[in-house]
User: What shape does this take?
Amino acid sequence: MTYSPVSSATSLSVKELRQDFPLLHQNVSNHSLVYLDNAATTQKPDRVIKVIDRFYRQDNANVHRASHTISARATHAFEDAREQVRTFLNAPHTDEIIWTRGATEAINLVAQSYGRTFLKPGDEILLSAMEHHANIVPWQVVAEQTGASIKVIPLTPKGELDMATLPELLSNKTRIVAVSHVSNAIGTVNPVQEIVRQAHAVSAIVLVDGAQAVSHFPVDVQQLGCDFYVFSGHKVFGPTGIGVLYGRQDLLNQMPPWQCGGEMIKQVSFDGTTFNTLPFKFEAGTPNMAGSIGLAAALEFLQQQDRTSLQQHEEQLRVHAEQRLRQIPEIRLVGTARQKVSVVSFTVEGIHNQDIGFLLNQKGIAVRTGHHCAMPLMDHLGIDGTIRASFAPYNTLEEVDYFVDSLQQIIKQQLYSCNASEPSTQSESNQTETAATSLEAPFSQFSTDQNAANTLLDALHSSRDWQSRYRQLMLMGKNMAPLEQHWKTEDSRLHGCESQVWLHHHYDDNSMKLYFAADSDARIIRGLIMLVMLLCNGKTALEIQSLSFEDEFETLGLLTHLSPSRGNGLRAIVDEICSVAHRYL
Ligand SMILES: Cc1ncc(COP(=O)(O)O)c(C=O)c1O
Assistant: This one.
């Protein structure tokens, strides 16, 4: 079976299903967790966790060739898992199932083994405008290596592939078509069977990126007719670090090994090496045995469910969420394809996506914000990113309502209230008034005197709990004087952050002190910038180098609540400040 839309009646007992997923039963930010980040990774049912636990307690030994009982047990479980994947995809042969670390590695394998061997200058690779970076960059690399070029299927305004362009894009130069079955960013289900039909008519082979499809509906690679199909275990209720490449036997047999080492050989001597047969030819080194077995348990779990009911339930969640979101005037839905899985992407006018993500987290709701590893799609849509809520069968209509109600409340508070309820301290209103007079703009506005800085820092530290500290950070962000537009230059932009961040520095030769000025389009990042400015501004390079940012962030709970990776800006700001300080040592 492949994708077919379902009506919304469902007999699924979500309450029972949720019992199987231990992670869901916890509080985050003092609220019951509402996990709506399933397109990034799904949660694991009890049996997957138990199977992995049991493997390491009872069956762990290296697979294949060993002459002892434990290894034989591990080998059987490992090869049974491969067979489980074969039935899951309805692949004709078990040796067409290759274990990889995930969808990304599987695509790289095909690009480097098939692509690098068979592509030549003038050949074309056809991708689509909605691909995940994992299905773009490996092809760019192999195109560079072979002299092939890349063409792109455009999208319609609804976020569907513009199929009318396909006959023109496909020609006898097209060697490979690589498309996602389902878009991770906007949820569109693509007409893969039709793409395969047209691609095969010009003798191109087709790789389907099924990372976002397999958890939502049954996939039959024979019915699709595709040549390669890839997916990741962790997006289908299985463990991380394991994934699958399905490839047609005749193609896999023609392809050279990609990675080399143990397991993938038949005979090695210094005169030469002969390679193993399928599937081992592509599985160099000790495989992820626990991962394979865990994935098989996840697939078995899924196959034992009534998949039509799961699909109906997810559809109900998506339709309900979209109906309610459409009623909020500030919200713009992104991606309104006729055939979608349960992924809802949107932007909120006047509020940065990252702020929405953080504020929802304050209510226990986990969503994803940003470009979702689909920057070309975001460029195509003319936006930086979206807020994405992605539903799994264990989500409930009540959760969807709580999510939309919370969003409404956030929009109201952020755009229309004068923050009467937010704490206001004498020190906060001081922060731009105590500027050092000797400094010029924009540094003067960030230069609080040490007493004022200490008062603000004390206020942050003495907040009674994370919620009030978070409000205080948001307020600091709100009160921080913005950089004037002409300071927001490309040169001063820090890259790798989800939001836009600009940073300038000034070194005072007389006092040997450094001053920084920065800004961001996300309010929470502005709050964090203010914190970093309070810690660093007016200090010597040596003093800055000796600051323990990590300890400060840990004490304030930022590491727990904001996961300050480079992606959210804080780490990028601190890295840049440290590297500036290093130059003045
Ligand atoms: C459509 C799509 N393809 C590929 C990937 C890459 O998957 P992984 O990181 O598990 O290799 C993802 C992950 O988000 C995805 O959504």
Remarks:
- Residues 350 and 568 are 19 Å apart (CA to CA).
- Confidence is low (pLDDT under 50) at residues 419-437.
